[in-house]
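Table 4 source record.
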Amino acid sequence: MVLLPLGMVAQEIKIAIVNTSEVISVMPEVTAMENELMALHQKYQAELQSLENEYNRKNSDFVAQQDSLNENIQKLRIQEIQDIQTRLENLYQMAQQDIEKKRTDLSAPIQEKVMKAISEVGDENGYTCVFDPHPQIVLYTGKSVINATDKVKAKLGLK
């Protein structure tokens, strides 16, 4: 038989859950982030469209004039078209990487703000631990589990 100090026996364990997806979805910073990402996406989309138009024009011109061009000019035009295609592929990859980096950079302060609020709510309410039920699989939540989502929203001034 193991004897525990009285302080450990009397200590209450309080477990809370916070739906961080719900909290983040109503933060004004998320709307600003989405707007900034959309603007960046639109800039890349315009550039990609311009390059694609150039590719289509050069390709159509080549197909229309192919029979009247000598072999060296044909090779030159084919190389031009291939170069545009390569630039198009590179721009597409660069756009994806840049947008993803921007998303990561913009979401980090939002996540930090939410985590700070969760910590403060946890400290203020004496929670032993706080879980997010969505990224993890919670198979059971008893009646004593506290949903602190609204407290975190209130801490952040959200509805």
